[in-house]
Design a protein that fits this description.
By secondary structure, the chain is mostly helical. It is 76% helix and 0% strand. It has a single domain, classed as Winged helix-like DNA-binding domain superfamily/Winged helix DNA-binding domain (Arc Repressor Mutant, subunit A, Orthogonal Bundle).
C-alpha cells in the first residue's frame, strides 16, 4: 500500500519541526511548512526555481515537462504558499 500525499506532507513537516539543526525563526518555519505541503511537482518546481534559480528551459529538460506546465506549477505553488503564510500570519497577530 502506498502512503497518501498527506502522509508524505505530514512526514516532511514532522521532520522539519523535529530538526535540531533548523535555526530559522518562526516565519522561516511557516515558509518551510508551506513548501512542505505543496504537491510533489509544485514543491520540486518551486525549490528549483526559487532556491536553485534553475531556468525553466533547463527544468524542462531535467523533468521532461513543458516550459508552460512548469510556469503554471510555479505560479500555483507561489499562490498556495502566499495563502498559507497569510493564514498563519493572521493567526499569530
Amino acid at each position: 500500500m502506498m502512503a497518501s500525499l498527506s502522509d508524505g506532507n505530514e512526514y516532511l513537516i514532522g521532520n522539519l519541526e523535529s530538526d535540531s539543526y533548523f535555526d530559522g525563526d518562526h516565519y522561516q518555519m511557516i515558509l518551510q511548512k508551506a513548501i512542505a505541503i505543496l504537491p510533489d511537482k509544485q514543491r520540486i518546481v518551486f525549490n528549483m526555481k526559487y532556491f536553485d534559480e534553475v531556468k525553466y528551459e533547463e527544468m524542462s529538460e531535467i523533468l521532461g515537462t513543458s516550459v508552460g506546465a512548469l510556469k503554471a506549477s510555479y505560479h500555483h505553488a507561489v499562490k498556495k504558499i502566499e495563502e498559507y503564510v497569510k493564514t498563519k500570519a493572521t493567526e499569530i497577530s
